[in-house]
Write a structure and sequence with these properties.
The complex is a heterotetramer, with two copies of chain A (about 80 residues), one copy of chain B (about 750 residues) and one copy of chain C (about 240 residues). Chain B is α+β, with helices and mostly antiparallel strands and about 750 residues long. Helix content of chain B is about 35%, strand content about 25%. Chain B has a seven-stranded mixed beta sheet. Chain B has a seven-stranded mixed beta sheet with strand order 23-25-22-26-24-27-28, with helices on both faces. A six-stranded mixed beta sheet of chain B has the order 1-2-3-6-4-5. In chain B, β19 and β20 form a beta hairpin. Chain C has a nine-stranded mixed beta sheet with strand order 2-1-3-4-11-10-9-6-7, sandwiched between helices. The chains are: A alpha+beta (about 80), B alpha+beta (about 750), C alpha/beta (about 240). The structure holds adenosine-5'-diphosphate and magnesium ion (MG).
């Protein structure tokens, strides 16, 4: 099964990278672009047939390693 | 004043870490109850972190003046004259609590904060040093903390283009739940272009510039004044995120602003953000200030005055411009893509008056906030167990049998092992001044446009301080100065970062008071003024405190940059000379910890006159071009010092044959004891006599103990060969230890 | 010679480059703000190291859109010598003035240390002061220095002797162990097909003075100055 | 309209970050995890009612700035 994981900064946490990209898009003339937020995207193959088990596993991975839950939040899809 | 919308309850007061008496004093000052915004402002300014309420009475004892001192403690950083119309501006600061919660951002924003302290004074930062304490690397948590902290320092410092040229790290489980992250920064400024944080000149405009204000780190200052407990998790949302790119722009903008004749005063928004910068600047000038929050650039909608005044968003500054220069200031900020807004004016009534949307939301005498905080003479007394720590019966400890194995274990212990894994992640060469990179006793950077160089070191043996806070602190000062002497530098100033547990406990306060006295006496003895510093209390978790860790950052001047010295042997055939006397000093040594698992005994004796004579001697020899290397004896004693002299040079590894007399003291004390006031030199044989004569004339014990030769380190005691190992083996153990440990997962 | 050092927001080796060209090599230096649109009057251009735009998104990705980069492209198209060091190299790649892209270092860490490079082509105006195959000790300081390009482009680079420096050991052997960041083919620096644009990850400006204990980098920078003098002469003859 | 953009390394390009995470997952005991790939995830608000126009705009952003097509590929969703 493949897990697709998104890790993004929590609301309210400064996103310097997003800010810089927004500024760059603006000076490139993309005036309609706003509120850029940057996060991470990860794909992990999970060798586990049982969906519930796989899900529990992925959640654990996120909590323990993939996301820094102090400033980031995560979501994932399995399939 | 409109009536407070929020009732100020007992709970609310307690949540703001204010005592009943402190609250009473606030009511007295205001002549009424504070509103919530005012309560918040008092709580941050009167926190331990901002008000130094437990430490002030003791810090006053430190010597802070000297012929070179331009600015002592009390400003954003200390300033010391180095001649040629130039000054060095330096300070050290802790970011311990935030780094435990979020190691990368905590350490990164620590670097950001200390950089701002230095460049607000008009100095361009040219060097950083970091001083770190972690628990043992055998737990994933400690490894995670270390990796995160180092990456955070690297991430911020490298991006800023300020080299991290040195530092130190010690590992001890006592720091597992309270790691220390102290960062030192030094900048260079023209003597006639030093800027202070003052809001002089009634009517002058107050200008905000830098990043926008968000809800970051609200209560950061009170958090740094609070012990951790199991509920600390809930304090997490206060984490601040740093933006080094923004800070780089801020730095360049500041220096450009300062080059023009535009400013009256300037200060960064550090802990307690807009509150501290505004009230401190006003108070220093004996003035007041009126702020209108309506104009403060914001990152998020709906922020309250409370949040705006307390936010600790990073990379922000407050300046007071000369009237009429607003537009010029704004233009420079815009050039560097910074947010900028006139947010207030300097007033003559001494009141910090804060308005939002036309309404007054806070009205407090600036001086009361900034300077009239509580001051405590907290009771102190030694802990009951103190004697148990120092009374160690050495007869119970067998003398060393396998000195080769002991040496290898010491070299591998992460406190002694090479810190290459760390400093390779730091850009330590940007700005092209770094003459001596990390890896020698002190870092040395040249000062462009002069023949001079400055040397810098950070030092503190906190185990000694735990065993005897007074002696430990004296030794820390002495060791720092010794590291400078070995590099060819004369000390010109000191900054400190005093990391301790909870000062409300008498035994912690005892450690603090004794340590301060030790620093004072040692600084007086060596004639080194303390020009800036920082106190970090409450480094404890569930009642378990760190070792007292009075970290010292010392700066030395090298008048002729080409008279700079490094610690490693240079040439086969050179003779090795030991300066200073070896005693039976095993107490508190790294050897006792690693080999006998004891952190006990009395720290080594330090005779300040002997220490002073040693520095004079080493400096004379280095300046006279008589020595090829100089390395002080510290952790691991003479044998580790010799080993480091053999292999720490980047380009070549050299062996040595050393013969020591078998005196009346224990073998392990000769080999691994940490007697103070000793330096290992290497020199051409033709300079031997001149060196011995010089030492003799200053009363410094000196002895030729061997020569640089071959590819092994061989040390004999009397007729017995104690150590005999290929230098390559020693180097391998030492160089890769930390890397191996960290890569194990 | 008048050498322009471009200052992007976040450049941090700009002062270092000025210092070396001006105080060590005795040339005139003009600091060029990234919003400038013209480079007239300059003989050569340096894109210095640093973290332009914080290195956010990708190194060099945002800086390449700075107004000055149009002028740099024209300058290069007209045969002007352009040297990009570290972040400057990354910007040249993103701008398409040099082929390829930079990936994260294999170790994922920022690495600051001395490394050795072998001069693969000494017959260029950037390396005329070096001997063919000469080993230079130069510091690197970067987190994204793993050079990558597709196989076809790589073959072209090799065929045209465009790979100028390759990571090697002290004795000049190009080995995997001597590769500090995972660069393809140990590439540390490349030039364009015309030979007037050079990008390199190591920092020659950091080792051009005896007081810093190493002068190897000076060979490259002094070569560039010599190269500029020659092209200048040609121009005036024509 | 919000654009959700994924930028990932092209197949065949070594992803040391993915490798490192895979290794870390393994030593944390997540034995079933394999083939970790790491990319970037960006959200951009596009102030444009016309979906086709917005799409063209986002594609442009990716081509010009958000992805380096020598080493990366991108995909986006609009909504
Ligand atoms: N955290 C660090 N950051 C940068 N350099 C470090 C760090 N820790 C140690 N070093 C460097 O490693 C060398 C050895 O450090 P240390 O053993 O503490 O020296 P000393 O005992 O002479 O004070 C020094 O040059 C020091 O600057
Ligand atoms: Mg030392």
């Amino acid at each position: 099964m493949k897990a697709r994981i998104h890790v993004t900064l929590k609301q309210g946490i400064l996103d310097p990278q997003g800010k810089a990209i927004e500024h760059a898009l603006d000076s490139l003339g993309f005036k309609s672009a706003a509120n850029v937020r940057v996060g991470k995207y990860m794909e992990v193959d999970v060798n586990e047939q049982d969906k519930a088990k796989a899900e529990a596993e992925v959640k654990q991975m996120c909590e323990k390693l993939l996301a820094n839950t102090i400033i980031e939040e995560y979501r994932y899809e399995l399939g | 004043m409109n009536t407070p919308a929020v009732m100020i309850t007992k709970d609310l007061i307690a949540q703001h870490n204010l005592t009943d008496d402190e609250y009473k004093k606030i009511v007295e000052i205001l002549g009424r109850e504070p509103n919530l915004t005012e309560l918040g402002m008092f709580s941050v300014m009167w926190s331990e972190h901002c008000s130094y309420k437990s430490s002030r009475v003791h810090l006053k004892k430190l010597p802070t003046t000297g012929p070179r001192v331009v600015q002592g403690p009390g400003e954003n950083a200390g300033v010391v004259d180095i001649g040629d119309g130039l000054c060095v501006v330096f300070k050290m600061e802790s970011h311990n609590h935030p780094s435990f919660i979020e190691p990368y951002q905590g350490a990164a924003t620590g670097v950001g904060g200390i950089l701002r302290d230095v460049f607000t004074m008009g100095a361009r930062p040219i060097a950083l040093l970091d001083s770190l304490r972690f628990g043992g690397l055998d737990t994933p948590k400690n490894r995670h903390l270390m990796k995160g902290v180092v990456a955070g320092i690297a991430g911020y410092g490298n991006c800023m283009g300020v080299p991290t040229v040195g530092g130190e790290i010690v590992f001890n489980d006592i720091y597992s739940l309270n790691p220390l992250v102290n960062v030192f920064c030094l900048g260079i400024a023209k003597k006639d272009k030093i800027f202070l944080g003052t809001a002089a000149g009634v009517g002058n405009p107050v200008i905000y510039f830098g990043s926008k204000t968000g809800r970051d780190g609200i209560h950061g200052a009170t958090m740094a004044s609070d012990s951790f407990d199991d509920e600390s998790e809930q304090k997490r949302p206060t984490v601040q995120v740093g933006d080094p790119f923004q800070e780089k722009l801020l730095l360049e903008a500041c220096l450009e602003l300062m080059a023009g004749d535009l400013l009256v005063g300037i200060q960064d928004m550090g802990a307690a953000g807009l509150t501290s910068s505004s009230c401190e600047m006003a108070s220093r000038a004996g003035n007041g200030m009126e702020l209108d929050l309506t104009h403060v650039p914001r990152r998020e909608p709906g922020m309250t005055p409370y949040e705006l005044m307390l936010s600790e968003s990073q990379e922000r500054m407050l300046m007071v411009a000369k009237a009429g220069k607003e537009d010029a200031c704004i233009a420079i900020c815009r050039k560097w893509d910074l947010d900028v807004a006139v947010v207030g004016t300097v007033t003559g009534d001494g009141i910090l008056r804060v308005k939002d949307q036309g309404k007054v939301v806070a009205e407090i005498p600036a001086k009361s906030l900034a300077d009239d905080g509580p001051r405590y003479e907290r009771p102190y007394q030694p802990p009951e167990y103190q004697d148990m720590l120092t009374n160690l019966n050495y007869d119970l400890l067998p003398d060393v049998k396998d000195a080769n194995a002991a040496l290898l274990s010491l070299l591998e212990s992460p406190t002694i092992a090479s810190k290459r894994w760390v400093y390779q992640q730091y850009d330590h060469m940007v700005r092209t001044n770094t003459m001596v990179r990390p890896g020698s006793d002190a870092a040395v950077v040249r000062i462009k446009g002069t023949n001079k160089a400055v040397a810098m070191t950070v030092d503190c043996n906190s185990r000694y301080c735990m065993l005897h806070p007074y002696e430990g602190a004296r030794i820390a000062v002495a060791e720092a100065a010794r590291n400078l002497a070995c590099s060819g530098a004369e000390p010109i100033g000191l900054t400190d970062c005093l990391n301790f547990g909870n000062p409300e406990r008498p035994e912690i306060m005892w450690q603090f008071v004794l340590a301060v006295e030790g620093i004072k006496d040692a600084c007086e003895g060596l004639a080194v003024p303390v020009v800036s510093g920082n106190v970090s209390f409450y480094n404890e978790t569930n009642g378990l405190s760190i070792y007292p860790t009075p970290m010292l950052g010392m700066v030395g001047l090298i008048e002729q940059a080409d008279q700079t010295m490094t610690q490693w042997f240079k040439q086969d055939g050179d003779e090795i000379i030991l300066l200073g006397a070896t005693r039976e000093d095993l107490g508190g040594s790294e050897y006792l910890k690693i080999i006998h698992a004891r952190e006990q005994g009395s720290p080594p004796l330090l005779n300040m006159d002997a220490e002073k004579a040693l520095h004079e001697c080493v400096l004379a020899l280095v300046r006279g071009g008589l020595v090829q290397s100089a390395h002080d004896c510290s952790d691991g004693g003479l044998t580790v010092t010799l080993a480091e002299s053999c292999f720490s040079g980047q380009d070549q590894k050299l062996g040595a044959v050393v013969r020591l007399a078998q005196g009346r003291i224990r073998k392990d004390a000769v080999l691994f004891g940490e007697s103070q006031s000793r330096v290992v030199l290497s020199a051409k044989p033709s300079h031997r006599q001149a060196i011995l004569d010089q030492a003799n004339s200053l009363g410094v014990p000196a002895e030729v103990i061997g020569s640089v030769t071959g590819a092994r380190l061989t040390i004999s005691l009397g007729d017995v060969t104690m150590v005999d190992v290929p230098v390559a083996t020693l180097h391998d153990r030492w160089a890769l230890s930390i890397e191996r440990t960290l890569n194990q997962e | 010679m008048n050498i322009g050092v471009v200052v992007f927001p976040g450049s941090n080796c700009d002062h270092d480059c000025r210092h070396v060209f001006q105080d060590v090599l005795g040339q005139d230096v003009t600091m060029v703000w990234h919003k400038e649109t013209s480079l007239t009057g300059l003989d050569g251009v340096i894109l210095p190291g640093g973290f332009s735009y914080g290195d956010y998104l990708r190194t060099g990705a945002i800086a390449r859109f700075s107004p000055v980069m149009k002028a740099v492209k024209q300058f290069a198209a007209g045969g002007g010598m352009v040297l990009g060091i570290c972040n400057g190299f990354q910007i040249l790649l993103e701008a398409g003035l040099l082929p390829g892209a930079m990936l994260r270092n294999k170790s994922l860490h920022f690495i600051c240390k001395d490394i050795f490079v072998r001069v693969e082509n000494a017959a260029t105006p950037f390396t005329s002061g070096c001997k063919p195959g000469q080993v230079l000790k130069i510091p690197i300081a970067h987190a994204d220095g793993s050079y990558y390009t597709d196989p076809v482009t790589l073959a072209g680079l090799q065929a045209n002797a465009q790979a100028m420096f390759r990571y090697c050991d002290q004795d000049g052997r190009v080995t995997p162990e001597a590769n500090p960041n995972g660069s393809l083919d140990n590439i540390a620096g490349i030039r364009n097909a015309a030979g007037n644009v050079l990008g390199m990850m190591p920092h020659p400006e950091r080792c051009a003075e005896s007081v810093l204990g190493n002068e190897d980098g000076r060979l490259i920078l002094a070569s560039m100055v010599e190269g500029l003098k020659k092209t200048k002469r040609v121009e005036t003859v024509v």
